Amino acid sequence: MGILGNLSPDQLMSFQSQGYIVLESFSSPEEVNEMRKRMDQLLDEFDCSSSASIFSTKNQKNTTDDYFFDSAEKVSFFFEEKAFDDDGNLKQPKQLSINKVGHALHEIDPVFKKFTFSEELSNLLESLDYKRPVIIQSMYIFKQPGIGGEVVPHQDNSFLYTEPTTCTGLWLALEDANILNGCIWAIPGSHKDGLVRRFTRDEEGVHFDRPFPSYDQKDFVPIEVKAGSLVVIHGDLIHQSFENQSSKSRHAYSLHTVDTVGCKWAPDNWIRRKVDPEPLYVS
After folding, report:
1. Would you list the DSSP string of 3-16?
2. Is 90 exceeded by the pLDDT of residue 161?
């Protein structure tokens, strides 16, 4: 990796060819530990009786509610589908039942904001030719042992669409991610085929504009990484993760950035902010 996050010409070529790149040791063990400890504090303070919103990539149309929409500018907590019994009670402690926390950690919480607005991250985006990037959403993803849900094949540009498309995913492993605990899988080079479908919001809620495509699982490769590694994901790359069937969690801090120069944020995206996000820099 180049100085303070800049990608080298070889890394840029690999990213353009494969649609993703792994930057090992992007964050120090101390930085990773700080984010994990902070999330422990946020969970301790969270009153789970006040919310029972569920996150599901398989059935998000039916689980999307005002709590989900409002989370664009808040720190909100979403449970795993399998966290509740038939009577609506948590099967295990809330710390082992949360799917993710989102979608404005990077703006509201100082620990996560420090990483998000770091010089390393800004230099990385500058080397990807971003002119005035904003982080449009952030998520702390738990991938809980035993119940961590599947994330079906998708493209990030489907959900965070600009014209032209500019979304890039930044996925920081806060624990080792491997095949057993639900690492990312991707189809290398699939970003070259363009956007397959969009996830839009209207007066009736959210929906995809086209049916779910079929994919050959043999085309996917696992992206196994150590804690502290950053996976940079092209917005059109087809990627997924399977259920965590192991006894170990797979924590990650995920960011999505879009540019705000030379492109337009689609008004029918699910995120409709009241206040424009702060840019990481202006080139």
Report:
1. GGGPPPHHHHHHHH
2. yes
